[in-house]
Amino acid sequence: MNQELIKKINKLKKEKNAIILAHCYQNIEIDEVADFVGDSLYLSRMAAQTDAKIIVFAGVYFMAETAKILSPEKKVLLPRPESGCLMADMINLQQLREFKSKNPGVPVVCYVNSTAEVKAESDICCTSANAIDVVKSLNTKNVLFVPDTHLGGYADSKLSDVNVITYPGYCPVHHNIKPEDIQRKKQEYPDAQVLVHPECSKDVIKLADFVGSTTGIIKKCQESKNKTFIIVTEKGVVDRLKRDMPEKTFVLIKENAVCANMKRIHLEDIYAALEQEVYEITVDSQIAKKALTAIEKMIKI
User: Fold this and answer.
1) Which of 101, 140, 256, 266 stands 20 to 30 A from 297 (CA)?
2) Which residues pair with 21 in a beta bridge?
3) Is residue 236 within 8 Å of 25, Cβ to Cβ?
4) How far is it, in rounded angstroms, from Cα 127 to Cα 173?
5) What is the reported pLDDT for 3?
6) Helix, strand, coil % in the chain, rounded to nearest 5
7) Distance of CA 199 to CAs 87, 124, 247, 284, Å?
8) Which pLDDT score, from 0 to 100, does residue 1 have?
9) Which DSSP string corresponds to 70-122?
10) Are 44 and 70 in contact (CB under 8 A)?
11) Cβ proximity of 80 and 58 under 8 Å
């Protein structure tokens, strides 16, 4: 049945001049129809570079918004519009303004895992891969970092001359990973390298052999001569590593390291969204313009 559905989706893509983007946390079946698979900003940039008229984003709401900001002339569809991001939802425009009012004149670095209106109210965006470089680029003693307290704290730990003031947001999947989870897995796999996403707490990061973004973790596994890895991030990354490097062993840090919102989308949802061209994402033009400025400042670094 899946093969039949894959054929139908691929046929529709050609007919409608559409592309499908799949985030690494998605159900692995989505890769069968995806034109690009990766982290959120990479996907949005790939979409902007193509001549496709329709973008189907297999991800969560803020990612589809970012794609729309970078490709305003294209139709962006989110197959399950209720696929949100719990971290992005932890801060809204009013909360950001209150955070800024308590720290007047301090520039704001905004993690891309945030809504368009929060990006628009920030000075510059960052990803998990370039957060340190972005904070450093501002050349100021104090920086506000939203919404992820762990990623902001990680940047702070790497920059001795900058005080990074973090908003208390977090990704529940990474936040719920504890040092004892790593210690337990290390007892089972003593020769394994521990690869950790910087959305994890500082106590977890301390136990890492490598800290990096989703893309960084995958690249490290490809390049390392090591054969066993404990992967401290969302399950979708482990699924893809196991598929792409069967000669190596990849251990998921804990079975519940799963983003339920990311896993909402299935092939049936992609087919329905593309066939009917429903669940289109729109962004207010003024918000989009300001948010684009914050994103472009980051891309220049």
Assistant:
1) 101
2) 36, 57
3) yes
4) 17
5) 93
6) 45, 15, 35
7) 10, 19, 28, 29
8) 56
9) H-TTSEEE-SSTT---TTGGG--HHHHHHHHHTSTT--EEEESSS-HHHHHTS
10) yes
11) no
